[in-house]
Amino acid sequence: MMTNNQLSKQREKSLAVFIDADNVSFKIMNSLFAEIAKFGKARVKRIYGDWTSSNLDTQNWKETIKNHALYQVQQSRNASVKNATDIALVVDAMDFLYTNNFDAFCIVSSDSDYTRLASRIRESNISVYGFGEEKTPKALINSCDKFIYTELLNKDKTRKQKSKKELQGDKKLVELLKSTVNDIADHTNYAHLIDIEKRITNQYPDFNSRNYGYDKLKDLIKAIDLFEFHAKNDESGKEQFKIKARDIR
């Protein structure tokens, strides 16, 4: 019989990470890789840019690249090929895709030029996790299985928790949560929290409770105070939550 540690390693996803240095700051790299670790183990870590350009803070990047053991790819720009970084990243990503050695790919960029790459990877039944700024075009966001705004990874900018009044006043959020719970509820009108999160993410890859100042969806749903909670421990002792929309008269 395998130990818990062996089972954990067996389930761990193998990730390939591709970073467009033109579209991300070195300041978030620690938080970025902590976030990526939630999805699996980064086996490939490549970063692309013109490291001779004054647009990149090469001195700070140099230390960051060393600390995270990133494979640095130099792509010089010229008048005829302004998107050399994009092309190099896409070519390498496709090469790694064809190896069939990875469970998921991480694309770190706000550039819509990577939309087709993300779509192509998903067509091969491999997950894509995107990381970019809030200005990222919806086309790229919706081409990913999950998209996380890099503003959330900036420790210098903490998000203020929205109050119950503010959350209940967000009609789009309220409708999303209520319709999702009601759509997947069982005969008791309860829906499992994990299923709620999966359904919402399938619809909106960039949905994140942290956008509202809450670390977990459970905390966000509790704060909005429109749902009933039922908690129960599973066979491993882990607490599981079922949620039902409360009738508001």
Strand content: 15-25%
CATH superfamily of the largest domain: 5'-nuclease
Biggest sheet details: 6 strands, parallel
What is the overall silhouette? elongated
Q: Provide the structure class.
A: alpha/beta
CATH-level-2 architecture of the largest domain: 3-Layer(aba) Sandwich
Number of strands: 9
Distance between the termini: 54 Å
Estimate the mean pLDDT confidence.
Answer: 89
Helical percent range?
A: 25-40%
List the helices and strands and how they pair.
Blueprint: H1 4-11, E1 14-20, H2 29-36, E2 41-49, H3 58-67, E3 71-74, H4 84-97, E4 104-108, H5 115-123, E5 127-132, H6 138-141, E6 146-149, H7 164-168, H8 171-184, E7 191-192, H9 193-203, H10 217-224, E8 227-233, E9 239-245
Parallel strand pairs: 1-2, 1-4, 2-3, 4-5, 5-6
Antiparallel strand pairs: 7-9, 8-9
Helix pairs in contact: 8-9
Verbal overview:
The protein is α/β, with parallel strands linked by helices and about 250 residues long. The chain folds into 2 domains: about 15-155, Rossmann fold; about 165-245, LOTUS domain-like (Nucleotidyltransferase, domain 5, 2-Layer Sandwich). It contains 10 helices and 9 strands. It has a 6-stranded parallel sheet, sandwiched between helices. A 3-stranded antiparallel sheet has the order 7-9-8. The radius of gyration is 20 Å and the shape is elongated. The model has no long low-confidence stretch (mean pLDDT about 90).
